[in-house]
Amino acid sequence: MTQPLLLLDVDGPLxxxxxxxxxxxxxxxxxxxxxxxxxxxxxxxxxxxxRPLRLWINPAHGPELLALPYELVWATTWMEEANHWxxxxxxxxxxxxxxxxxxxxxxxxxxxxxxxxxxxxxxxRPFAWVDDESGPQDGEWIAxxxxxxxxxxxxxxxTGLREGDFATLRRWAEALS
Length: 177
Known about the structure:
Elements: E1 5-8, E2 29-33, H1 36-39, E3 53-57, H2 61-66, E4 71-74, H3 81-85, H4 87-90, H5 115-122, E5 127-131, H6 136-145, E6 150-154, H7 163-176
Parallel strand pairs: 1-4, 1-5, 5-6
Antiparallel strand pairs: 2-3
């Protein structure tokens, strides 16, 4: 049997950006990066004058993710840049990524902007979606419109992925087989 997909967001699950200001969570390292997509958000500033993004990344997350029975996929606005900026920090190889046709578009039914595209991208395969912005309506819509099992796991952006989240992901994938 083909492994289910693990559709993984960066900001929130791997980078707990909403943790108490100036309080890096235990086990996380601080990294300052300037991805091209970030610099492009400031077209009137020379790149050297754009402040870098602050990331809090836990290097233990890479081995924990690799130990899960999933095919890992970036489902983040970082898209291909996640392989350059995030993968090395957590010890992940280059991963496939969802190439969004449009970022942050409004949905007529109030779904998260990623929801419909993730279902289409999964192509009928079972998947777990790990994100800090998904809601109950996304899970309900996926259950009604996706032909395979799916898990929507909302992660608190103040804490990022935790031990219990990894256990939930493992149990769900093992229950499929």
